[in-house]
Amino acid sequence: MTKNVRVRFAPSPTGPLHIGGVRTALFNYLFAKKHNGTFILRIEDTDQNRYVEGAEQYIIDALNWCGIPFDEGINKNEKFGPYRQSERKHLYKKYADELIASGNAYYAFDTAETLDFHRTDHEAKGKTFIYNWHNRLKLNNSLSLSAEEVQAKLDAGDEYVIRFKSPQDETLHLTDIIRGDIKIDTNILDDKVLFKSDGMPTYHLANIVDDHLMEITHVIRGEEWLPSLALHYQLYKAFGWETPEFAHLPLILKPTGKGKLSKRDGDKLGFPVFPLLWKDPITNEVSRGYKEDGYFPEAMVNFLAFLGWNPGTEQELFSLDELINAFELERVNKSGARFDPDKIKWFNHHYMQEQHNDELAEAFKNIQPELATIDVNYISIVVGMIKERATFISDFWALSSYFFQAPETYDEKASKKAFKEGTKELLTTVITLINTTEDFSVESLQTAIKGWITSNNIGFGQVMMPLRLALVGELQGPDVFDIMFMIGKVESVKRIEKAVSIL
């Protein structure tokens, strides 16, 4: 790739960043880094009625947490700023006027009431009203009015919009990196509004102008923008500008595989659809985030990369650098990608094993009040023994509480299974063996207790099951001798004596 790659992620600050938006940002980031390019963040906030306080910062924080920060944007390497569209609105009128002067756009003065009448009339006849070549000369616009009439309306301050003049009887040949060649009959296109008399552009005009001025080389965006590709292509052509390459990413589907993933799906099935926790500033409604739910950003990024893309190999676990090296837009699928909440847990479990025990121990201590006075080095050793069975740090306490405090109850089913006639005598002998083991190491305990079991032809389960139950309160956990070594001789004996007296 010879030209300097520049891609942009251009969300609207209308609320928290959806997981689909994160996936779009990720694919832009991977593509940029693959080609030593630049990843740009632009905030498309022209629709001030939908602007939500805090949403812009949320977007930035989410990208940073995911480990895919932008290279250029608000307060960062501002070579083509400003990067908020609301601060660029003075630019767009000039380009709208250029399109009118070149005959590629026109003023339309139709009122909302008039357009509603036409829509209703068409619906009654079983038709769809489209404002384009077949009726624009019959409507109230600068194509049907004289130049004097148009100027009079403008001078009088009549409300207007500027519409793009879609061509008639042409076939557009478009190319999408993911979807290949696309043919569009211009006769089915409507004359989209580009600019309004309140001085604000629509998304279509602002998006094209900004991409051109920011020298965007590749537009990588969601499938929902595919219907706009014909208009955007024609706008580039009308301005005489070089068209960037386009790639439209597939939808992220519900876990059922039917329909686009929504917040409602997450609420219903119990998983987040936002990277970070979000509190709506108006309703105070709180929405869960992957970070606060205990997911590692590496797990989420690895998971999202596989929503619509595959490397062409059996490998599933990728570091960010490996994703960058492997990523190709040509390997992105056209069809929608089903969101699987169990799969992201699978990724998180893997990344749990990759984390350093000391870091996990610090995080565990911070969320568990019972550990406030416990040495973090001890916690770290415990974490190393139990994390293989954990998916989240929040799982640690249920898997390890017996390392920090004696069990208060004993699993009823396990008790009936482990404690039989003669168990009391066997555990009493175990206590003696523990007390007479000199160095109280894992090896010494194993030698003493296993040697006694073998030499007396006792079934291992007869001893090890009730011993584990006495120490843990249930039949789970790592090696019994590791547990005894960790909690110490005095505590081990104390727990066995308690279990014997109760059970």
UniProtKB/TrEMBL annotation:
E.C. designation(s): 6.1.1.17
Domain Aminoacyl-tRNA synthetase class I anticodon-binding per the UniProt entry, residue ranges: 367-499
Gene: gltX
Motif range ('KMSKS' region): 260-264
Keyword Aminoacyl-tRNA synthetase belongs to the record: yes
Role according to the record: Catalyzes the attachment of glutamate to tRNA(Glu) in a two-step reaction: glutamate is first activated by ATP to form Glu-AMP and then transferred to the acceptor end of tRNA(Glu).
Location, primary (coarse class): cytoplasm
An example Gene Ontology molecular-function term: glutamate-tRNA ligase activity
Localisation: Cytoplasm
Record-annotated Glutamyl/glutaminyl-tRNA synthetase class Ib catalytic domain positions: 4-346
Key words of the record: Aminoacyl-tRNA synthetase, ATP-binding, Cytoplasm, Ligase, Nucleotide-binding, Protein biosynthesis
Gene3D superfamilies: 1.10.10.350, HUPs (3.40.50.620)
Residues involved in ATP binding: 263
Assembly and oligomerization: Monomer.
Similarity comment: Belongs to the class-I aminoacyl-tRNA synthetase family. Glutamate--tRNA ligase type 1 subfamily.
Top-level taxonomy: Bacteria, Pseudomonadati, Bacteroidota, Flavobacteriia, Flavobacteriales
Motif ('HIGH' region): 11-21
Listed PROSITE patterns: AA_TRNA_LIGASE_I
Organism of derivation: Mariniflexile aquimaris
Reaction(s) catalysed by this chain's protein: tRNA(Glu) + L-glutamate + ATP = L-glutamyl-tRNA(Glu) + AMP + diphosphate
Name of the molecule in the record: Glutamate--tRNA ligase
